[in-house]
Design brief:
Layout (H helix, E strand, L loop, with lengths): L1 H21 L3 H22 L1 H14 L1
């Protein structure tokens, strides 16, 4: 019983993953994830303009 308790999170994750695939819920989840990711990226870029300019300049100079 103790070994099952150690793996219960993984078992639930697999079941949820199978349900996402079977019912086609992976696509909306992917779209929402991409939107949230780009929102975070845009917010980071907005707050760190100077630092990003410097990093981009150094990267271009290396190329």
């Amino acid at each position: 019983m103790e070994k099952i308790k150690e793996w219960i999170g993984a078992i639930i994750g697999v079941i949820v993953g199978i349900l996402f695939v079977v019912f086609g819920l992976w696509y909306p989840a992917l779209v929402i994830g991409i939107i949230v990711g780009f929102a975070y990226l845009g917010n980071y870029a907005q707050k760190n303009k100077g630092e990003l300019k410097e990093k981009l300049k150094n990267f271009i100079d290396k190329i």
